[in-house]
Design brief:
Low-confidence stretches of chain C: 1-32
Mean pLDDT of chain A: 80
Structural class of chain A: mainly alpha
Number of helices of chain C: 17
Number of strands of chain C: 15
Distance between the termini of chain C: 76 Å
Order of helices and strands of chain A: HHHHHHHHHHHHHHH
Largest sheet of chain A: none
Helix content of chain C: 40-55%
Structural class of chain C: alpha/beta
Helix content of chain A: over 70%
Radius of gyration of chain A: 24 Å
Strand content of chain C: 15-25%
Low-confidence stretches of chain A: 1-21, 290-294
Number of helices of chain A: 15
Largest interface: A-B, 98 and 97 residues
Mean pLDDT of chain C: 87
Largest sheet of chain C: 6 strands, mixed
Shape of chain A: flat
Distance between the termini of chain A: 43 Å
Strand content of chain A: under 5%
Number of strands of chain A: 0
Radius of gyration of chain C: 24 Å
Oligomer: heterotrimer
């Protein structure tokens, strides 16, 4: 039972660590790890269940609902998806959409945040509040006007239509601004005395110091874009332009649900981002943790 | 270009000789500012702000997509304030938000306190708590809906094994909202934890050491050192979570569709139904602007409450 | 990452984006030498999907000058995009706008759909031979604005094993037997088993059938609620009691949940359409399909459901789109479609078709087409009547609100929405 090993490991290590302490602190420490252990189990079980469900037959799933593991393994969910979707094309679209957009966002957001945190000009507060205000309006509201705009631009069903409207994010600007505010102003003043332009200060002083913020915004944006369903569905109509997660929504019909296909779809769309998270989490958690948000 | 209002206004006011902006004297600093902000504001202006303005106009009209559109003044808003479904959705949204944000901030803070260390186990546990954050709400809604099914789901199966009667988590009028709130908390807890952890790292170590030398107990340290030290982060976390949660839609749409009997019908869910099922675009826009005002007011109150003086 | 590397990465990424956008705009479908491409949006994601794909494939093979490209998306997506897409002219030539036929009214109002040329011959839709209820539903101001993409009648699915275990030899023939069997098949001894799996939201409605069986109804021909009539109240009371007191069905299920319950072998009966059969078969359920029991007055009744298929008013190729719909409704195609999907054919002149008669599933559903009634047909604001009237009504009476109170409130709501003035 993989959940059990994960649950017990922290308790054991806590016990060994607190050997030198008194009984009370052992109790406190072990209750801490029990609390965390329950939390870890609650966080993981849905995913274990999802992964195992994608390999289970309907009959098995319904007969043993309390089981986390398949009695026999069927690949029916995965073959079903492979047969019905242009899988590699969708995967490529997803990476292009999320990847290119994230790169553009990093550049534009940090530039905008530089102006909002480092330059003094009339209307700066207004500009900042305008950026914040865009976070406060639900996307569904602008859907119809945006669609009409994209039509007039001829951008429906194109990569630029998918990417450009998303190439800046208010959240990113907000986060970069907060981070830049924490970088001592003396640094760029020194550079300015040396005759550096704003562009050089931004590019050679501020950005190199902002790696944690860059990592955070990059990961959060990539994640949000990857998971976004509504936007790709609105901009694209041809099946060749869809992203993977958006295409996978097709398998949840109004009435009949093939659970294996549904869960296989969920697993596949989660996989790339889970792998990415596995490798990037060191930078990410460190990134957020040192951002020193103010 | 008819669309670039904010930037357009500013550039119009300023004779901008682009290119040599950076070499100008410091008194004219608004020019580089404009250059730095042009990409973001061009995009935000065209694809966010202009559509918002257009939709604000919709809220004063009787809009039929493709048909005749008539100016009706405040009629949509008048109807709205008489609509019992709107008041219900407003209450549901506020309950949803208050419960979610309060629990997220408190439990997230406790988790952050417990998981400050840099040991391998702590780091793994932290990553596991964070994991649900990277998954789309639709996937999460789908999986939880299935898990919680009283007859065929995992939770139902477990309670069956224990000899307990099946619980209708999502179809009972009293349990549906708490259940969706729980899933929302489950999804965002790691996010709140990480943000607050960042704040904890920012509190200078010397203050803790000084307090410990003075013989302060753990709870006293939390009360007098930690909490004041992370006030700005608390604000950021609360603000972001509140803005997000007031607009909750995907999770509700997938898990309950707003039911049973409208007990989980949030404002954005109501707005969605009016805009895309009932084709009342103008009315839906009016709902969104009421929501917008609510978000602005609550954000402003939170800024006051945390005595935020960062914005100059 | 040093800054030179960063610049390089951004440059490469930017170049890639440009190259891709260039190539994507270069490959937009172009009309080659007289060949016409028609796009069609549909929301057929269910088990019946191959049936529609087959019609498109056959059409393309037999019409070398026309190519129909069908896309499948969820109904939610289509409902969000289509009104604007058709308004701007960027939409498809043909589309199934929703699984609810009432939305056609909106598109007629905004002049987004073309009236369909009816008559006989290969380029006209022979509306005289289509199911009359469906044609009536899609006709506005005397003109047909969409064809039914399918016409499904609901039948009674029953679990043979549970019937045998309860000692019931045959599926119920009358509404009295139906009620008795539902009670008898509900077990609560260790293993939960429900007599009937009912859904009341996010579903093709099942409750109207229960009402019709006991002589009740929802609205009359003037759009006025008749829920408060004594027959309606009595019928709703009977079924609400069965759900509340005898627990014959879980409360508040969605369509998908109701299906899963039957599929998991936890419910003995379900009212459902032909699309469910392949999935139940794949899940290994030992089930039979029977006609809906006779109503208390001895008449036959069930619910019919259609998805509309309409032509955009802005299409460049109305004649070709018309030809496709005519082909879609032709005898040969409808026979093939029925055999693939189990749906009854759209036409009423195929009763003697030997192949369809030989297929027991098609036979059951087809035999009920003449008795099938639509849910809220041609009613003003029907989607709101459903969402704000009927769905809450069923939700309330199955959760303990008295039928008299709930129907009175719903009557006010419905009459307000339909503009009924008595």
């Amino acid at each position: 039972m993989s959940t059990n090993t994960i649950r017990t490991r922290p308790v054991v290590s806590a016990g060994s660590r607190s050997r030198a302490r008194d009984g009370f602190s052992v109790l406190r420490s072990s209750s801490k790890w029990i609390f965390l252990g329950i939390g870890v189990a609650a966080a993981l079980i849905p995913f274990i269940w999802m992964l195992s469900g994608s390999f289970r037959s309907e009959a098995d799933l319904f007969k043993n609902p309390a089981s986390l593991f398949p009695t026999s393994i069927t690949l029916h969910g995965y073959t079903g998806i492979w047969q019905q979707l242009p899988f590699l094309r969708l995967l490529a679209n997803s990476f292009i959409f999320a990847g290119v957009t994230t790169a553009a966002t990093l550049l534009f957001d940090s530039m905008c945040a530089y102006a909002l945190s480092r330059l003094h000009f009339r209307g700066r507060t207004v500009a900042f509040w305008l950026v914040l205000a865009t976070l406060m309006v639900p996307f569904q509201v602008t859907l119809i006007p945006v669609f009409i705009e994209l039509f007039h631009l001829g951008w429906l069903n194109t990569y630029q239509g998918l990417i450009i409207p998303r190439a800046t994010s208010a959240f990113g600007i907000f986060l970069f601004r907060q981070f830049f505010m924490s970088i001592p102003v003396e640094l760029d003043e020194a550079a300015r005395i040396d005759g550096a332009s704003h562009w050089r200060i931004y590019w050679q002083v501020i950005l190199p110091l902002s790696k944690p913020a860059i990592a955070t915004v990059a990961i959060l944006n990539f994640m949000n874009l990857w998971n976004d369903l509504l936007w790709p569905l609105v901009v694209t109509t041809s099946p060749n332009m869809l992203t993977l997660p958006a295409a996978l929504t097709l398998f949840g019909g109004q009435h009949i649900t093939d659970h294996a296909i549904l869960l296989a779809g969920a697993t596949i769309s989660l996989l790339p981002i889970a792998i990415g998270f596995f490798f990037a989490q060191k930078y990410f958690v460190a990134g957020v943790a040192t951002t020193g948000l103010k | 270009m008819t669309v670039s209002n904010p930037v357009g206004v500013r550039t119009a006011r300023t004779p901008t000789p682009s290119g040599d902006a950076s070499t100008r004297r410091p008194r004219r600093r608004w020019q580089p500012a404009v250059l730095f902000m042009v990409p973001s504001f061009l995009i935000l202006g065209t694809f966010v702000i202009y559509p918002i303005v257009q939709s604000l106009l919709f809220s004063f009209e009787n809009v039929t997509i493709g048909g005749p559109t008539t100016w009706i003044g405040f009629d949509n808003y008048v109807t709205l304030f008489k609509d019992s479904q709107f008041w219900n959705a407003l209450v549901v949204t506020l309950e949803f938000t208050v419960a979610s944000v309060a629990i997220l901030v408190i439990v997230g803070f406790i988790l952050a306190l417990l998981l400050q260390g840099e040991g391998i186990v702590t780091r793994v546990v932290r990553s596991i708590f964070f994991f649900p954050t990277i998954v789309s709400l639709v996937t999460i809604g789908l999986v939880w809906k299935f898990l919680l099914d009283p007859n065929i789901g995992f939770v139902g199966g477990i309670s069956d094994l224990l000899g307990l009667p099946p619980v209708a988590w999502l179809t009972s009028t009293s349990l549906a909202l708490p259940t969706v709130v729980f899933v929302n908390i489950w999804k965002n807890l790691g996010f709140a934890m990480i943000l607050l952890l960042a704040g904890l790292k920012g509190v200078p170590q010397e203050r803790y050491e000084a307090a410990r030398i003075d013989g302060a107990r753990t709870l006293q340290i939390v009360r007098y050192i930690t909490l004041p030290g992370i006030r700005p982060t608390m604000l950021f976390t609360t603000l972001i979570l509140t803005i997000q949660t007031l607009q909750v839609f995907d999770l509700v749409f997938v898990m309950t569709g707003g039911g049973p009997l409208f007990t989980t019908d949030t404002l954005v869910n109501l707005l969605y139904r009016d805009a895309f099922v009932n084709y009342q675009t103008g009315y839906a826009s009016a709902i969104s602007f009421v929501l917008f005002v609510i978000i602005v007011v609550i954000s402003a109150l939170q800024l006051r409450f945390f005595r935020y003086n960062d914005v100059d | 990452m040093n800054k030179r590397k960063l610049v390089a990465v951004i440059a490469v990424v930017g170049a890639a984006a440009l190259a891709l956008s260039a190539c994507s705009s270069g490959t937009t479908p172009t009309k080659s030498a007289g060949k016409v491409t028609l796009t069609m949006w549909t929301g057929f994601t269910g088990g019946d999907r191959p049936g529609y794909a087959q019609i498109v494939k056959d059409f393309n093979a037999s019409h070398p000058d026309i190519k129909v490209v069908q896309t499948v998306e969820s109904w939610d997506t289509i409902e969000q995009k289509l009104p604007t897409a058709w308004l701007t002219g960027s939409g498809p030539d043909i589309a199934a706008p929703s699984s609810d036929p009432n939305v056609i009214a909106n598109y007629v109002k905004t002049n987004s759909v073309l009236p369909i040329v009816t008559g006989s011959g290969t380029s006209k839709v022979n509306s005289a031979q289509l199911a009359p209820a469906a044609v009536k539903e899609l006709t506005y101001n005397g003109k047909l604005y969409a064809i039914p993409a399918n016409f499904a009648s609901l039948s009674l699915y029953y679990n043979k094993k549970m019937f045998a275990a309860a000692g019931i030899a045959n599926p119920p023939k009358t509404v009295a037997e139906f009620e008795a069997d539902a009670k008898k098949l509900t077990l609560n001894n260790g293993q939960t088993q429900y007599g009937l799996s009912l859904a009341d939201n996010q579903t093709i409605q099942m409750w109207p059938i229960l009402q019709w069986l006991t002589g009740g109804d929802i609205v009359n021909s003037k759009g006025c609620s008749v829920l408060s009539s004594s027959a309606s109240q009595a019928g709703l009371q009977t079924w609400a009691d069965l759900v509340q007191n005898d627990h014959i069905s879980p409360v508040g299920q969605t369509g998908a949940q109701a299906d899963s319950l039957f599929q998991a072998g936890k419910a003995a009966m379900e009212l459902n359409g032909p699309w469910a059969a392949p999935t139940y078969k794949a899940a290994g359920v030992d089930f039979g399909i029977a006609t809906v029991p006779l109503a208390s007055n001895g008449s036959k009744v069930t619910l019919g459901s259609i998805a509309p298929l309409a032509i955009s008013a802005k299409t460049k190729y109305p004649a070709q789109a018309q030809e496709f719909l005519a082909y879609y409704t032709s005898k040969a195609q409808q026979e093939k479609f029925s055999l693939t999907t189990g749906f009854p054919p759209l036409r009423t002149d195929m009763g003697d078709d030997a192949k369809l008669k030989a297929d027991p599933t098609v036979q059951v559903f087809n035999s009920q087409v003449p008795d099938a009634r639509l849910y809220l047909p041609q009613l003003t604001n029907a989607t709101e009547v459903d969402a704000n009237g009927y769905v809450p009504l069923i939700g309330e009476i199955t959760r303990g609100t008295s039928v008299a109170t709930a129907t009175a409130a719903t009557t006010t709501t419905i009459n307000g929405l339909t503009g009924c003035t008595k």
